[in-house]
Amino acid sequence: MAVDPKRTAVVLIEYQNDFTSEGGALHGAVADVMEQTGMLENTARLVEAARAAGATIVHAPITFAPGYGELSEHPYGILKGVVDSTAFVKGGWGAEIVDQLAPREGDVVVEGKRGLDTFATTNLDFILRARGITTIALGGFLTNCCVESTMRSGYEKGYQVITLSDCVAATSSEEHENAIRFDYPMFSAVMTSQALADELHGAAVAG
Q: Is the pTM of this model over 0.85?
């Protein structure tokens, strides 16, 4: 797959302390798969390589006001889990982007993510199109939830979508592997972080 760094964005979905860090509200649920895949270290390496090649780095955190007034009175499913664990409260440590992937000058931080699909309640599509981005590479949480939802929307919107198989994590190995094996190939090109880093570097060198 030909990847032009200038037209590529690496979209980092919910790399926030509540998922990534010891003591985070939901860290215990994803820690095993994070460790299996090495996703945090892989993502940090890829982001360095992508920046060096001239790609855009987009951070997509999810945040809620205290009390979760943005959600329905009786949330269910995955969002009920967020409310019950009081995760991703705006202004709190848990909602902050993990230090290893803290936004740098030139990165984009998308505002307004309140649900699963990063495109749904944010200006992500506007930002990408304004910058001439045609390829998006997705990493983050959860493999089978927000990353998958964003992948499907990106595919529908006509982007060339890459899913980073070693930069995602879920609450169980079964869910994680099932999504990568059966769902991701339908709506994306599945790549490792190293494969994408190599593609970006090669394209940047070729100029």
A: yes
